[in-house]
Specification:
single chain; alpha/beta; 25% helix; 2 domains; globular; six-stranded antiparallel β-sheet; Aminopeptidase
């Protein structure tokens, strides 16, 4: 039902959060979902619709004759990934090289960005506020590593200063300034500002002698975005309203208008209840019986660093999505929500695993605790196991993303 080639196409078409949101919206639109602006009158809300705002998407499928206090079955993910972003004044000339001034976005693995052929994608904004998406899908920049001859200790200790050592080259001698060049690539006037991501131009690829692995940029967390979109498109809810929320800015804390800590999801759900004739009390009753699956990739056990995992809770690739548990609430999973996701996996006939960090190993977090805290919705954190998280190019198993999509599909019908 869910094809890995389709996931590869999703990944390749989503080099920035804005493109990821647009890719999701295009797929939803092609499947019959109607676009709804958050500033529109929602009195006649389509049964299958979506709101696209910047780098975020919220979409729903409402069963016929849904009550005004019908619960929501949510699946959440995030569209952003750690990367290098182009600063507003990007042009740097240094000893005959033309360089781009960049800012580190999120917690990147610094060394993974060395010697990669980088494209650039994102959105340009004119002085009057109009936006244009741009994707230069060819190598235009590279962060060159210092030769081993000039750093004999590099294999023992590589230390990169993000201000000094992650600045890419994109030409030599003198040439056109970046703002004029990117405007030409987009076929638009010189932008006033932009939000532009550098990304590895190597396409997503199935690898391994047995073709059991998938390598790509932005697996974290566009794998979950793809799974949520495809599960919603296939969903046939009977009692609850199926909803997906793909938030931006998770990698930097979610505190934005389109992040999980913002009010976007809450307002969409409230207006959804109102469109069905409900009031504030109906919304609160709906939330009290709702549930959320926060899907964000998990750390697979690494064959070269087995000691970094708890021996009884180390996820394997191609063994199903992992239920992520942390007693200190870095994940929102409870015993009740873990059991609910287990039932969804069993209904979908897919395996599942359990991930808990070592006590002496820091634990990351997701949109799950934020969504659960803001809305009071019972939430489980789950994810596809992967290696090289936050690298410019990551690795997971080919069977786990379809398994996640199948489990989400089953959860929407619960």
């Amino acid at each position: 039902m869910y094809e890995i080639d389709d996931l590869c196409a999703y990944l390749d078409g989503s080099p920035s959060p804005f493109h990821a949101a647009r890719t999701a919206a295009d797929r939803l639109g092609a499947a019959g979902f109607a676009a709804v602006a958050d500033g529109d009158d929602w009195s006649d809300l389509p049964a299958a619709g979506f709101v696209l705002r910047d780098g975020s998407v919220i979409a729903w499928r409402t069963p016929a004759d849904a009550r005004s206090d019908a619960p929501f079955r949510l699946a959440g993910a995030h569209t952003d990934s750690p990367c290098l972003r182009v600063k507003p004044r990007p042009d740097v000339d240094a000893v005959g090289w033309r360089q781009l001034n960049v800012e580190v976005y999120g917690g990147i693995l610094n060394n993974s960005w060395l010697d990669r052929d980088l494209g650039v994608a994102g959105r340009l904004t004119s002085v009057d506020g109009e936006h244009v998406l741009v994707d230069v899908r060819r190598p235009i920049a590279r962060v060159p590593q210092l030769a081993v001859h000039l750093d004999r200790g590099v294999n023992d200790s590589l230390k990169l200063d993000p201000q000094q050592h992650l600045r890419p080259v994109w030409g030599s001698g003198s040439g056109e300034d970046f703002a004029s060049w990117i405007a030409e690539q987009a076929g638009t006037d010189r932008p006033a500002f932009w939000e532009l991501c550098l990304y590895d131009t190597q396409p997503a690829a199935v690898l391994g002698g047995d073709e059991s692995l998938l390598a790509s940029g932005r697996l974290d967390n566009q794998v979950s975005c793809w799974a949520a979109v495809e599960a919603l498109i296939a969903a046939e809810p009977t009692d609850a309203v199926a909803v997906i929320v793909l938030n931006d800015h998770e990698e930097v804390g979610s505190a934005s208008t389109t992040g999980a800590a913002g009010a976007l999801l809450e307002r969409v759900l409230e207006r959804h209840v109102a469109a069905r004739g409900g009031d504030r009390d109906d919304l609160l009753r709906a939330l009290a019986t709702s549930s959320c699956i926060s899907a964000d990739n998990a750390h697979a056990v690494h064959p070269n660093y087995v000691e970094r995992h708890d021996p009884e809770h180390r996820p394997l690739v191609n063994a199903g999505p992992a239920i992520k548990i942390n007693s200190n609430q870095r994940y929102a999973t409870s015993s009740a929500t873990a059991a609910r996701f287990r039932r969804a996996c069993e209904t979908a006939s897919v395996p599942f695993q359990v991930f808990v960090s070592r006590n002496n190993m820091p634990c990351g977090s997701t949109i799950g605790p934020i969504t659960a805290t803001r809305l009071g919705i019972d939430t489980v954190d789950v994810g596809v196991p992967q290696l090289s998280m936050h690298s410019a190019r990551e690795l997971c198993g080919v069977s786990d993303p379809p398994a996640l999509a199948a489990a989400l599909h089953a959860a929407f019908a619960e």
